[in-house]
Amino acid sequence: MDLNKIQNLKNQAISGILEVNSASELERLRIAYLGRRGELNELLKQLGQLPTNQRVEAGRQINDAKQAIEQTLQSQKNSLPDSSKINDWLDITAPGKKPALGHLHLISQTIEEIAHIFEKIGFQRVRYPEVEWDWYAFEGLNMPPEHPARDEWETFFIDNLHHPKLGRGVLTPHTSSGQLRQMEAQKPPLRMLNIAKCYRRQADASHAPMFYQFEGLLVDQNIAITHLKGVLAYFAKQYFGPNRQTRIRPFHFQFTEPSFEFDVTCIVCNGKGQIEGKRCPVCKQGWMELGGSGMVHPTVLKNGGIDPEKYTGFAWGWGVERLFMMKYGIDDIRLLFGGDLKFLEQF
Ligand code: DAH
């Protein structure tokens, strides 16, 4: 053996390694040069045959060659494209990776469910602007400027947006603004379902600054409170199931006369108002309010171009999130807007 042989082997190994572009081929070269029966070990075995004065130098060079080959193998391995590493093996019996499957947000699900229930009894879903004029949101609904009832709607007004006849621009504080727009668009008989985003300056466990309402409006001849009761009870039974009880209570809204609030038995205490001898923390009395309703005020009909002597109607406006919360016993509206998958994936 001469020392040139070691250098040649080293150079040959390095240039061979640098041309390889698959991990399996690199492994093959590693075994060929560095393996137990590899070329370098063969050289080491021959060391004994050398005269003592050359043996030390040859041993040093073999070690040096070994290190250089190891380093080249490593760096070539690191520079391989990812795909070449993946394609290295294929186990067709390995279990497949399931891509995470999403679903509609639970508010969207609820909206679809509501629309579907009302569609069956002839209510047509519509949408109106989220940026609305004061007339549609308040004044046309029998709430003139400065009327104290407006305080209930903590309204976002829009700077520098003003209509000469319809007043200031606002973010829709409730879906009731769709009532007049619908009356302008369609003559009775009409059945409208307006599901939309609403905005109010409010934020706590049961109020979000942006939330959804669904507004119903039915106008026809000879419409009475019994129709209102029947339609809303039908909806509650469809949405909550046959065992939930509902009731209506007298209330006041400017745009309906008479006006009501509509309650459903509380899911948390099962309508008892008590849990283990203590007051129910969610409803306190066994009933939960779902929203307002009433017989459309004659002034509102007139403002919508409908003759109140000839036609009557009823309307309601309820919160979408509230409905959902009362179906599943959720006590904080912020969970619905939080984007926490651990919560959202349950529905
Ligand atoms: N717009 C009312 C609110 O946001 C709810 C409401 C009450 C709507 C009575 C109606 C109704 O259509 O008749 O609080």
TrEMBL record:
Predominant localisation class: cytoplasm
Question: Which molecular function term from Gene Ontology is one that the record holds?
Answer: tRNA binding
One Pfam assignment: Phe_tRNA-synt_N
Sites binding Mg(2+) sit at 257
- Give the signal sequence positions: none
Question: What is its cofactor?
Answer: Mg(2+)
What does the subunit comment say?
A: Tetramer of two alpha and two beta subunits.
Record NCBIfam families: pheS
Task: Provide the protein name.
Answer: Phenylalanine--tRNA ligase alpha subunit
Species annotation: Candidatus Shapirobacteria bacterium CG10_big_fil_rev_8_21_14_0_10_48_15
